[in-house]
Structure to design on (237 residues):
C-alpha cells in the first residue's frame, strides 16, 4: 500500500464514523460541552448500550477523547473546531445536493421563520454598538459550558414565564446548538408572538466558537448530569 492509499484508508475510517445519525447527534451534544456516557444516553434517547457502542466508534476514528473521573468516563471532541467545521460542510453539501434535505428544511425550519438569519459577522457589529440582546435558549448546563459574550440564558421551555427579563425596546437575537436545532426557531416565534423584535443567529454556539470568536464560560468544565432529568424534551430537539 502506498502512502496516499494509507492516508485515504485512515480518512475513510473517519468518514465512516460520521455515517450514522445517532453519532452525528452525539457529536452535536459534545460540541456544546464534554459529557458522560450516562448524560449522552439521556440526551440522545438511545439505549446505554447503543450510546456506548457509537462512542467507541467515534473514539476509534479519533473524533472524541475520553477521561476517567471517578466512576464516570467523560467524552469530549478531539479538536472542536475541525469537527464542527466538518459537520458544517457536511450539512452544506446535503442542502445543496440532496433534495430530501432541502424539503425538510423548507417544511420544518423555513416554514417557522422565513426571515433571513443574522450572520456571525453582523452580530459582532451589532454587539459592538450595543444594538442587540443575545439570548441563549439551550439548557442551563450547556450555557455554563460556554456561550456568546454577554448572552442571557433562558431555556426555551422557560421563556413564556420569563419574558419580563428581556428588554422590549431592543432587538433580540436567539441561538441554540447549531443550524438544525429547533430551539432558536421556537424561541423567535414565541417572542414575535408577544411583540418582541426577534431574530435568530444563522448557526449555533459551536460554529461561533469554531470561527475563533470570543466566548465566555459560567463554570469550570465539569460534567453535570443532574440537569438531565429536568430539561425535558429540549434535550433532544
Amino acid at each position: 500500500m502506498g502512502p496516499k492509499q494509507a492516508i485515504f484508508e485512515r480518512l475513510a475510517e473517519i468518514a465512516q464514523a460520521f455515517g450514522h445519525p445517532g453519532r452525528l447527534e452525539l457529536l452535536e451534544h459534545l460540541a456544546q460541552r464534554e459529557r458522560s456516557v450516562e448524560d449522552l444516553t439521556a440526551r440522545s434517547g438511545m439505549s446505554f448500550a447503543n450510546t456506548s457502542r457509537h462512542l467507541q466508534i467515534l473514539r476509534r476514528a479519533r473524533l472524541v477523547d475520553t477521561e476517567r473521573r471517578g466512576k464516570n468516563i467523560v467524552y469530549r471532541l478531539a479538536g472542536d473546531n475541525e469537527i464542527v467545521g466538518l459537520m458544517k460542510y457536511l450539512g452544506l453539501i446535503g442542502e445543496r445536493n440532496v433534495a430530501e434535505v432541502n424539503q425538510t428544511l423548507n417544511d420544518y425550519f423555513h416554514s417557522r421563520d422565513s426571515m433571513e438569519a443574522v450572520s456571525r459577522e453582523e452580530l459582532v457589529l451589532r454587539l459592538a454598538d450595543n444594538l442587540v440582546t443575545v439570548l441563549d435558549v439551550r439548557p442551563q448546563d450547556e450555557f455554563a459550558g460556554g456561550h456568546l459574550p454577554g448572552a442571557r440564558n433562558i431555556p426555551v421551555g422557560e421563556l413564556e414565564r420569563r419574558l419580563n427579563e428581556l428588554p422590549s425596546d431592543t432587538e433580540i437575537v436567539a441561538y441554540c446548538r447549531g443550524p438544525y436545532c429547533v430551539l432558536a426557531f421556537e424561541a423567535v416565534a414565541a417572542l414575535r408572538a408577544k411583540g418582541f423584535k426577534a431574530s435568530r443567529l444563522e448557526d449555533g454556539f459551536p460554529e461561533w466558537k469554531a470561527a475563533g470568536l470570543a466566548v465566555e464560560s459560567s463554570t469550570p468544565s465539569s460534567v453535570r448530569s443532574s440537569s438531565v432529568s429536568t430539561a425535558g424534551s429540549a434535550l433532544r430537539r
